[in-house]
Amino acid sequence: MRYKSLLSDKEFWKGSEELSRILNCILANLELSDWSLVQLFEELSYNHYKNRDWEIMLKCKYRIKMADSEPLDPKILAVFDQDKEIAKKFFKGSRKTLIKELLKLESPHINYNLIVKLMNNKEIHDPQIAAICQNIPINQDERTYQKNTLARLESSILFHLERPLLHKNTRKLESEFYNAALIVYKWARFKLNPVFEDIPAELSTYRNHLPGYKLKIFYDEENLSFSMKMNYIDSQSIGTFWHVHTSIAKMDDGLLHFYHVTSRDVPRGISQRSTFTKPSFLADLSNKVGIMDIVRLGSKAHFVNNTELLHELYQLTESDERMLPVIVIAQNSPNTDAPQETVDYRDYDMNTFTINGTRLAKVVGHYSHVYMLDYHFIEDFAAHYAFEPEKTIGCICIFRPSYQKKERMFFTRKMVMETQFDFNRFAFHEEDIYEKAFRHNLVQLLKDDNTNH
């Protein structure tokens, strides 16, 4: 009611702020009660440890449902009675470690012996206990559990990008590879470190899995090859499973190439909004290493304010090697406060453009090119692409890559200004509602192109 509601707290608790405070007190008491219960059983476990009641000590310490009727192996009891320090290691063991080890087994029959065996294999490593546990089998639980009918999953790609990375002559290819791989590695480690706590801080090959989670990282420094595959369940959406695959490798052209795809599996028949998911490390990779699509991609718009830059724009839009869309935003009125030639982008008044390309580039600049065309070059631009000059003033034009075999899209200033949101909740300021609405639609169009090509 509080944390999963789509309504804001201010709206939900309007006029009942005192009830909101009471709920906070109740939640705090619940958390305190949970903590107090854990401390109580920890203290109870310690008392049984002092009294050498080893079985009850294990039960209170690890708090796992088990078969109480099956006693601890007499040989293990003898080791504990003979050397209390060994028993102390099991008393100080991690319950989280035990649960992770149990999750790796398929329907295990849990008893005291299994707890001792798993904890000794993973954490304690006592040779006497290990010798005894060699003869203790791991049996399956013979009880039958009802399983829900499985639903077929439907997969959808939510983000895809394949591009070469920037290589500078002032940098070694090996250092560029290391920096790029480290950015992705740190992202993966941060994302799954709560699950896999043993992921090394240093860039290295790593592999681990638990039910619902899998991480596989391959790092070959000598051959400049890096791959990261991640699979994990969604903690908020029932039945949803995520797949992330990223690789960086030196190809035959001598350059480093970056590949990334994010996809999601959801049960058939469950209605879920298709969420575009650009990885958060992409900005870091673009800024620190560089992603190329003929020219470098980035979170800043390119301003076309001289003839040379205009011809470069023509070459980019007409190149068959280009793999990402080009967005051209034409100025709708001259920038009277700045000189006509070689003006710096900071001198431009953003209100003279139909939409703010600098804001747009921060959102889509890593998987598209954003150009802002100076008013004085609109006539040349219109003639080159056979647009009507009057309609080109303040227009937005999208040039799709040739392999998509889609026509370029042309939006006049009037079309942009008539754009509206389907829901008023998206509008924040009345004076630029059309810009937000059009920018929202434009971003959605680029997202659809990215996931459906």
Can you summarize the main beta sheet? 6 strands, antiparallel
- At the fold tier of CATH, the topology name of the largest domain is Glutaredoxin
Q: How far apart, in Å, are the first and last alpha carbons?
A: 40 Å
Mean pLDDT: 86
CATH class of the largest domain: Alpha Beta
Write the topology of this structure:
Layout lengths: L8 H4 L4 H34 L3 H9 L11 H9 L1 H8 L3 H9 L8 H13 L2 H7 L19 E12 L8 H20 L13 E5 L2 E8 L4 E9 L7 E10 L5 E12 L13 H8 L3 E2 L1 E2 L5 E3 L2 H12 L7 E5 L26 H8 L4 E5 L4 H7 L4 H4 L3 E4 L9 E3 L1 H5 L15 H20 L1
Parallel strand pairs: 9-11, 10-11
Antiparallel strand pairs: 1-6, 2-3, 3-4, 4-5, 5-6, 7-8, 10-12, 12-13
